[in-house]
Amino acid sequence: MDLSVIIVNYRGWGKLRECLDALSGYIGKKYTSEVIVVDNDSADGMIDSFSEEYRSFRFIRNEKNGGFANGCNIGARESSGNYLLFLNPDTIAGENAVDLLLERAKGTSGDFIISCRQKDENGGESIAWGSFLAPGKLTGPGRALSRFLKAKLFSSKSIVKENPFHPDWVSGSVIMIRRDFFEKLGGFDEDFWMYFEDMDLCFRAREMGGDILYFTDITIEHKHGGSSRINIYTTALTKSEVLISKHLYVSKHFSLLSRIFSQAFLVAGNLLSGLISAVAGIVLFFIPRVFVRVHIFIRLIIYYASALIVRSWISPRSVSSLK
Known about the structure:
The protein has eleven helices and eleven strands.
């Protein structure tokens, strides 16, 4: 089989429907393919109706919400394609885009990870690539400067002329990779529950001599927040996991001195900013997007207490923490 499209879902059924409708219109016409949806224990009964509606696609029930990396790895193990295309359920991949991604993958030698340009439903640019996390990019101002420079870089004539160009990492929302290289890498690292698993995969790919290719002439629509903004609880969970996964990435890929400094810096900064945000959330409890900061701070406190006890930066939600 040429291609396996793998989608990990958690209660994002509305946007998943748009994603699957786009794929069902053409998938398999020009190449042999399959679509696999791994549902991360949505536990809402919707998977049965979707399985009935989209009979040409395969649906897999994950017995637990093991996170994005775990769901992707399950889909990959159950797939048969020589090439794997990981898509977020809130993406809409047109026929031309998928055809071109596969064509470019087949025409590229060596080991690689491929992605492409992404835009939101209003045509706005989504910067789905970046440079690896470093000590200077741990803070809000550092990240803001990095985003500003990325936006300037993407809009510059030089980057448009370079197609593909080679960023450090690309977003897990759209990743195409040859099966044997994915297996050589050991798949996504399931220590990550959500976020930074894409950066980690690209880091390890580069360490093994692989390349990261981002094609600017291929575009996929990406409607952000499909599974991460369902309600206050889910928002608090996902936003706290951004902070947790950053600690984990630092522990895996920073040198000893940078790791010690960065972890201490992150803990102090997160606790201080989290406390201020939580106090504001208590005062303005009637505003959900502000009150959610209280839940985020509580989850962060629980995580740091757990990290001290088990001496590990791995998220308690990760399947690795259960082994």
